[in-house]
Design goal:
- The complex is a heterodimer.
- Chain A is mainly alpha-helical.
- Chain A has a single domain, classed as Na+/H+ antiporter like fold (Up-down Bundle).
- Chain A has helices spanning 2-15, 18-31, 40-62, 67-91, 100-111, 115-128, 140-163, 171-180, 182-196, 200-228, 230-234, 238-266, 270-281, 288-295, 301-332.
- The longest helix of chain A is centred in the C-terminal third of the chain and has 32 residues, at 301-332.
- Chain A starts with a helix and ends with a helix.
- Chain B is of the alpha+beta class.
- Helix content of chain B is 23%, strand content 36%.
- Chain B is built from two helices and six strands.
- In chain B, a hairpin with a 4-residue loop joins β3 (39-40) and β4.
- Chain B is elongated and about 45 Å long.
- Classes of the chains: A mainly alpha, B alpha+beta.
- Chain A binds chain B through residues 37-40, 42-44, 221-222, 224-225, 228-229, 232, 285-294, 297-298, 301-302, 305, 308-309, and chain B through 13, 15-16, 43-44, 48-58, 86-88.
Chain lengths: 334, 107
């Protein structure tokens, strides 16, 4: 009961903070029919800035980190990414009206990671004064890539069973495609620059100070697009909407549990545990959908993109982040 | 002085752009034009001005290529329709056009 009250308080508190307020504001003006559109180029640039900031900070901190400390959380990230897809593969196609390919692609997208959600959580933690290892956000490819690959492999296996034709799913092109995508390229370049060069002056004067402000614009965009894409979701089975409501929280709690083990085993910070939960909770935007569209052509993009953008992402940000934060208060006495 | 040629136009999902271009080049086209666009089809309304939160998974492109040889243009249309439009959305059509500077369209 106390935990519930704490969650309610945290949630209401977060409503007034910029991250959530801009997200809900975006939904509100879209619902009222506002014509406000932030240009695509600006959106892409903001995502680049956030990922570069995450990469640089991670790289600079990895210089002084023990490789052993990073290993377990990275392993957890891979495991959670795979578990989410296995779980979704097992559950979604059993629901009435859900096509197997649509279920698999949706599970893959929910296993993959959203940089926007991750950045939102980082800003919330900063504002709450909760510290975390700067390399934790940089763990996101460890969950993102295995989830997408596994979903595509599952889809390949399913297709083989249907057609009887034997065609191997080639994994490396999928991994290469993810790594070369705009999101991971920015993150990995940031990591390398942080690790091997001295980017402190641009980090302190440019990337870091702009982070919060740009995130507020991004949240506005996510809110507007979430509402705009609701129409997509209406055209597919209602079970996708239910999955999109529940799955982000289940995935986040799963990662929170495993992260807590890492806290006791190798000293992962409570903030790090929360971020791991948020990474698991999030579902991919920008890079995940085109990868899945190209690799699982039989899946209907309205199903997986509609459920992710319209419900999954707002759930992960608006409910997930306050939930894991209050769990953090409760479990670690933050 | 104009010459007869065939233009093949394909409006399709952006995710298969590279595969379409490959087919066009294999058929012997010396060039092609790609335009991004918005519109509505059987499956969805598509806009290219909005922030692409879903990457370019919902974007469409219009690809135009002029071939001096009608058979080659038909081959492009058939191959695109038979190999790509089984799962991806798109339309393809041919038009007879009159071109100047014929050498530009022959390889």
């Amino acid at each position: 009961m106390e935990a519930l009250a704490d969650f309610a308080l945290t949630f209401v508190g977060q409503l007034q903070k910029p991250t959530l307020a801009f997200l809900l504001g975006g939904m509100l003006i879209a619902a009222l029919g506002s014509k406000l559109v932030i240009p695509d180029a600006v959106y892409r640039f903001i995502v680049f800035m956030l990922l570069m900031r995450i990469g640089l900070a991670g790289g600079m901190e990895i210089r002084n980190a023990e490789p052993g400390d990073i290993f377990l959380p990275a392993l957890i990230a891979v495991a959670v990414g795979c578990l989410i897809v296995i779980l979704g593969r097992a559950v979604l196609p059993r629901l009435p009206g859900v096509k197997v390919e649509d279920g698999i692609a949706t599970a893959g997208l929910f296993g993959a990671v959203s940089a926007s959600t991750l950045a939102a959580a980082m800003v919330v933690l900063d504002e709450e004064g909760v510290v975390y290892e700067a390399w934790v956000p940089a763990l996101y490819p460890f969950m993102d890539i295995p989830a997408l690959v596994l979903a595509i492999v599952f889809a390949g296996i399913h297709q083989q069973r249907q057609s009887g034709a034997h065609k191997r799913v080639r994994i490396w092109p999928i991994v290469a495609d993810s790594l070369r995508g705009s999101a991971l390229s920015a993150l990995l370049l940031g990591l390398l620059l942080g690790l091997f060069t001295r980017p402190e002056s641009v980090f302190d004067s440019f990337y870091d100070p702009l982070f919060k402000g740009l995130l507020s614009v991004l949240m506005l965009i996510m809110g507007i697009e979430a509402y705009a894409r609701l129409a997509e979701l209406r055209r597919v089975a209602h079970w996708f909407a239910l999955y999109a409501f529940v799955a982000p929280l289940v995935h986040g709690l799963l990662a929170f549990g495993l992260g807590t083990l890492a806290h006791y085993a190798t000293g992962l910070s409570p903030g790090g545990v929360i971020l791991l939960a948020v990474i698991a909770s999030s579902n991919s935007d920008i890079s995940g959908p085109p990868t899945l569209r190209a690799a699982i052509p039989a899946a209907n993009p309205s199903a997986y993109i509609g459920s992710s953008t319209s419900i999954g992402t707002p759930m992960a940000i608006a409910v997930g982040i306050p939930l894991y934060l209050s769990l953090g208060h409760w479990v670690f006495g933050l | 002085m104009t010459h007869k040629a065939t233009e093949v136009t394909i409006v399709a999902e952006k995710v298969i752009q590279e595969q379409i271009v490959e087919i066009i080049e294999r058929a012997g086209a010396t060039g092609y034009t790609i335009l991004e666009g918005s519109g509505k089809g059987q499956h969805a309304r598509r806009t290219h001005e909005r922030p692409s939160v879903a990457g370019d998974a919902f974007d469409i492109v219009k690809i135009e290529a002029i071939l001096g040889d009608r058979a080659a243009a038909e081959q492009v249309a058939d191959e695109v329709a038979n190999t790509l439009f089984t799962h991806y959305s798109g339309i393809v059509y041919l038009e007879e056009v009159e071109i100047l500077r014929r050498a530009r369209f022959w390889r």
